[in-house]
Amino acid sequence: MTKQYDAIIIGAGHNGLVCAFYLARAGLKVRMVERRDIVGGAAVTEEFHPGFRNSVASYTVSLLQPKVIEDMRLADHGYRVIERPISNLLPQEDGGYLKLGGGLEKTQAEFRKFSEHDADILPEYYDALDRVADVLRDLALKAPPNFGDGIGSLVKAAMQGRGLAKLPLDGKRDVLDLFTKSARSFLDSWFESEAVKAAFGFDAVVGNYASPDTPGSAYVLLHHVFGEVNGNKGAWGHCVGGMGAITQIMAKVCKEAGVEISLESPVAKVITDGKKVSGVRLESGEEIASSRVIANVGPKLLYERMIDDGDLEPEFKRRMKGFTAGSGTFRMNVALSRLPEFTCLPEPGEHHQSGIIIAPTLDYMDRAFLDAKAHGWSKKPIVEMLIPSTVDDSLAPPGQHVASLFCQQFAPLLADGRDWDDEETAAADTIIAAVEAHAPGFRDSILGSQILSPKGLEQKFGLIGGDIMHGNMSLDQLWAARPVLGHGSYRGPLDGLYMCGAGSHPGGGVTGAPGHNCAHQIISDRSLLGKLKLV
Hints:
- The protein is α/β, with parallel strands linked by helices and 535 residues long.
- The protein contains 17 helices and 22 strands.
- The strands form 6 sheets. Strands 8-7-18-19-20-17-21 form a 7-stranded mixed β-sheet, sandwiched between helices.
């Protein structure tokens, strides 16, 4: 080892880039090491068919923290998001449809096609979710208490709990419901129409290998309403240039701040000296020295593949063995000769610029999960289609389009010795058939495709079990318990080891929050250490 750094970050995904920026701004000498030949992690834009580009994995914007956008001055460097005119379209099995979003009155008018009651109660439902979401938004950019650190952690927990404590009784009830109930039981208490419940319930199974009947799935529904686009809470949008435009801008900002970024530099091992980290060893054999190693990879990848067993306490290893990862996600990008023509709405319209959800009821979603548990994937999978080329002509040739197919309920591991390498083409065909059932001619319009099974997502992006969240977003793996109680404040079990990825609070999505919080924790620890040395 020769050159010494203040911090080494493993993985140049968006959270790693955010963390690097704040550390460099604070004066630390930072080096990032990235396995692939491009920065961005799962937020990248790549050509997957000649002339067709798309966001390969992560595909839509809402959760990116406004503070991160402002601090990194992303807009000054070309960051631009086009908001969806409506949130989603849900084709129904009877040939009808439901549109969600585009304003309260517009959504209420849609709901009245299915239920007067549901239309009337919608404002109250939105208020209830917003009230809880506002409290949790306030926690997103705060490091959780590190239970086990003594009275300080208890004081911090009490301070962070003040927002919840101030909620009125019905708000506290909503919190309890959202953290413990299934999405179905929560939505059943509000709505009567199956189409309406499906419109909201879809968010509960995104990146969640579970049924809408699974206890705790209501929280995942809430997690997806935290965001905003251009100041509009709960909105979603398309980043011009794809998700890779965000991370390319972030990389530029980081380099301007002095961060060194090394591509095609996979890490073989975190090097330790006793119970302290001392750097990393790359697969090339190069060793890089640093007293701080920050992992922007998931906890499973970090602790089971990058750190020697002997460096971890048996109890910690047991806990991490029980850390659940595997989101049941299958991802496709398709090049299209023309826009899909949906039976329910065949003409071009605002739905083509929004999310199109193939999952008309909660029962459909439940059957998809049970099918996947039994057979590996569903015969009728849950599919969300976005067609970003309708608003961004940089992604496809004139008159042609790209579509993202984000699909749920595909087993992270197949049973009976089967391998996703042998099954992914058949699974992809099932996905295309699910879309074809609502958009006849879709199959014939496909010019080329990119297929990423859960195994493919793991191999390409290091997402264990294809888990886009780096670990289940369940009550036992949230806040101070993400990834495990006692290490929820971005500090690992070795001195100088930190975690800045989605496997830490507040979890998955392109938020930048874990990277922001981890950096500020490191800066705080560094300041405290400096004060102790002076004393």
